[in-house]
Amino acid sequence: NAGVTQTPKFQVLKTGQSMTLQCAQDMNHNSMYWYRQDPGMGLRLIYYSASEGTTDKGEVPNGYNVSRLNKREFSLRLESAAPSQTSVYFCASCLLAEITDTQYFGPGTRLTVL
Amino acid sequence: DQQVKQNSPSLSVQEGRISILNCDYTNSMFDYFLWYKKYPAEGPTFLISISSIKDKNEDGRFTVFLNKSAKHLSLHIVPSQPGDSAVYFCAARGWGGSNYKLTFGKGTLLTVNP
User: Is residue B5 less than 8 Å (CB to CB) from chain A?
Assistant: First the structure.
């Protein structure tokens, strides 16, 4: 079991460029999440997908789009990157079958926008 | 408005002593609380949790206490070990329809000195 995997691990973009961050989980989880972590800000939810075919906005969705490609994969797209999107991005997944279910996180993608 | 607050950005303790990390929340609809641990360049990993109907949960060296009337929880680590040095995030779960979302605090950097 690889758990939650994210690609790429690192990326440098120029302002205005676009890119897609990929996330996959092999735990047959129902829900998937995208967070960003900034210094002194904790983890903030960007978008989430409660189940295949559904997506919803989180706390900081502006400038991002998501696609739940299938049950395993949840991608995050930056259409026109801005320096304010420089951050570490984490994908997470959760079975969401019991009240005590927890989220499992990937290793993160460190993105720098120049 | 920050719903989950970790007011201490950092904490330093000696190996073998107790570490106490604190967390306050404002939303009385939160029903489940979790602590995550994060090492540099890795994703957060689940540590311990507590339901809002309990006031204590213990797992080995880790104990979480919940004071619902004060909207306060704490994580106790006894005895502290150098390998415990990491950032600790407090998170609270709220329900949005049939989904579940976590709201994270900003984290506390724990340093355990040998």
Answer: no
